[in-house]
Amino acid sequence: MLFRSGLNTTLCDAAHEQYVTAIYMYLDTANRVGRYSSAAHPPGLLWRRGRQTLERLDGAGLLLGVRPNESYAAREVSFDAGDRLLLYSDGLVEAENADGESFGDAALPNFIQEKESLEAEQFVDLLLENVLAWSRGGSMKGQEDDITIVVIDMKDGATSHM
Fold it and tell me: What is the residue-wise DSSP string for 38-89?
């Protein structure tokens, strides 16, 4: 399924040479289905608690604000009770330690698995604490990019999020 983004058209018309990454996620909790689309945004991560696997929700479309008539692909994903969805900005995964290792490559997958039993709010608090400690280690002057984190836990019949 392809769709055109009104936000993209607005950015092209009103904010010349201003580009934005974005991810759009629609959750149908009754049917445990999500539909998402991405405009050059880091992929969502879906922790499948029952299977103990981590899935990347790729959907790399063009940045918003580049071409006014750009189409964006919509993808669908199903959820099970116990699954955890993590949406985030690039500041989370690109944070580097003193050795130049990015948090997303070196630490995030293990963190998600090891902290799966935490409630969403505790998970976010500890994740932010860990990424900030990671980027301040050694000679690094600290985190320089913004960090946005959204966590959605699929529960029986409902979701909880932080």
Answer: EEBPPPEEEEETTTTEEEEE--EEPPBTS-TT-EEE-EEEE--TT-EEEEE-
| Residue 24: its H or E element | strand 22-28
Residue 142 Ramachandran class (φ > 0 left, ψ -120 to 50 alpha, else beta):
left
pLDDT tens-digit series, residues 26-62: 999 899 999 999 999 999 999 999 999 999 998 779 9
Q: What was the pLDDT predicted at 158?
A: 52
Q: Which two tokens stand for residue 155?
A: 């529960």
- Could you tell me the pTM of the whole model? 0.87
What is the Cα 27 distance to its own chain's centre?
14
Angle made by CA atoms 39, 135, 25, in degrees to the nearest 5 = 25
Among the listed residues 84, 87, 86, 81, the one whose alpha carbon sits nearest the alpha carbon of residue 32: 81
